[in-house]
Amino acid sequence: MLAIINPKDEYIDLNLLTGCEIGLKWKYLLAVFIGACSYGVLSTVVKLSYLDGVKKNELIVAQFFAGWLMITLIYLFKNNRPKISLRKKVLLMVGGIPSGLVGVYYYTSLETVEASFAIILLFQFVWMGIGIDSIFTRRLPDKKTTGSIIILLLGTVLSSGISLQGAIDSVDFRGIVFGLLAAACFALFIFANARVAPEIGAAQRSFYMVSGSFFIVLLILIPAVMTQGIGSPGSLWIYGVILGFFGVFIPPFLFAYGMPHIGSGIGSILGSAELPVTILLSMLILHEIVSGLQWIGILLILMAIILSNAPYKIRQADQTMG
Predict the structure, then answer these.
(1) Would the CA dihedral through 152, 41, 294, 55 be positive or negative?
(2) Fewest Cβ atoms nearer than 10 Å: which of 138, 191, 207, 215?
(3) Which residues of the chain have pLDDT under 50?
C-alpha cells in the first residue's frame, strides 16, 4: 500500500487521494525542500563573514536577531491571528530551542574537526529523525525509507569531499560529540515542526519557535559576545541579515507550513537538500573545486530524495494514465 502518515498518525492510502489532494501534498513537499535548500546558503556566507573579520559568537547572535525580527514583523502584520493557549505557546518555544542549539553545537564542532567531517556528523540527523519518528509512531521505517537513508548517507560521505587520512588526523572526541549533538538537535527541530501544534498557522508557529531558538542563543552566547567585543560591526549586520533571512526566517516558516502535512520522517530526508546547495555555492562563489566523486555524491543525495517520495510521483503518473 502506498501511504504516508498525516499529523494524526493515520495512514493515508494514496489510491484514495484525488489529483487536487496529491497536488497539495507536493506543495508541502516543495516548501520543506526549499527550506532545506535555504540552509545550504549559510556555509558560504559564514566563510565570507570570517574573511571580513566577523567572529563566530557575534555572527550567530546577529543571525538569530535578524531572523527573529523578520518573522516577528510577519506575525504582527498578519490579520486574523487566532488565539492560542499559553501551554501551546510554551510548547512551540521549547520546540524551537533545538534550532538555536544546532548552530552553537555545529560551529563548536568545526573548531576541532575538519569541515568535511563535521558535515558528515551533522547529517546523521537523517537517520536520527527517522528513528525519532519511528519511536513516536511505533512503526519501523519501510524498505523504501531504509534504502533512501543508505543512499543518502553514502552520498553525504562522497559529496563532503572528506579525506580519510585527514579525518583520522583531525579526530577529536569533543568535536565528534558536538557534531552529533548538532545532528540530534536538528532532528528534534524537524520532529517538533511536524508534531507540535500542527493545527496552528505557519506564521504563528514559526514566530514562537524562532523566539525559542533566539532566546537560547542569547542565553548561551551573549556573555561571550560581551566579553570578546564585536570584531567588525558594519560587516556583522550585513552578514547577520543575510544569514537571518536564509537560516532563521525562510526555513522555519516553510517547515512550519509543510512539515505537519508530510511528517518528520520524509522531512528528515528532504532536509538533506542542504548539502548539494552548499557545495554548488562554494563552487560558484568561493571558487572551490568540486571533484567527480562529489558530483556523484550530490546525485546520490538527489536520488535518495526522489526515492523517498516516489509514491507521490507514481500515483500522479497512474492518474494521468487513467
Answers:
(1) negative
(2) 138
(3) 1-18, 312-322
Quick one: which H or E segment has residue 111? none
Q: Is 291 left (phi over 0), alpha (psi -120 to 50) or beta?
A: beta
Domain that holds residue 164: 21-317
**Residue with grid cell 520522517, as numbered in its chain:** 265
- As a 3-state breakdown, the chain gives helix, strand, coil percent values, each rounded to 5, of 80, 0, 20
Cβ distance 244 to 270 under 8 Å?
A: no
Q: What is the pLDDT of residue 14?
A: 42
- Distance of alpha carbon 282 from alpha carbon 284, whole angstroms: 6
Do the domain assignments include residue 128? yes
pLDDT (tens digit, 9 = 90+) per residue, 206-258? Answer: 999 999 999 999 999 988 877 776 666 778 889 999 999 999 999 999 999 99
Question: What pLDDT, on a 0 to 100 scale, did the predictor assign at position 24?
Answer: 60
Number of domain units in the chain: 1
| Residues sharing a CB contact under 8 Å with residue 58, sequence separation 6 or more, in sequence order | 225, 228, 230, 231, 236
Contact 227, 107 (CB under 8 A): no
109 touches 118 (CB < 8 A): yes
Contact, 205 vs 213, CB < 8 A?
no
The amino acid that residue 37 corresponds to is C
User: By the 8 A CB rule, do 45 and 242 touch?
Assistant: yes
| 1 within domain boundaries | no
Q: Per the structure block, which three cell numbers stand in for 28?
A: 508541502
Which of 181, 257, 210, 202 has its CA nearest to residue 96?
210
Q: Is residue 3 one of the residues assigned to a domain?
A: no
pLDDT in tens, 50-88: 888 888 889 999 999 999 999 999 998 887 778 889 999
**162 in any annotated domain:** yes
List of residues 6+ apart from 27 with CB closer than 8 A = 258
What predicted TM-score, i.e. pTM, was given to this entire model?
0.80
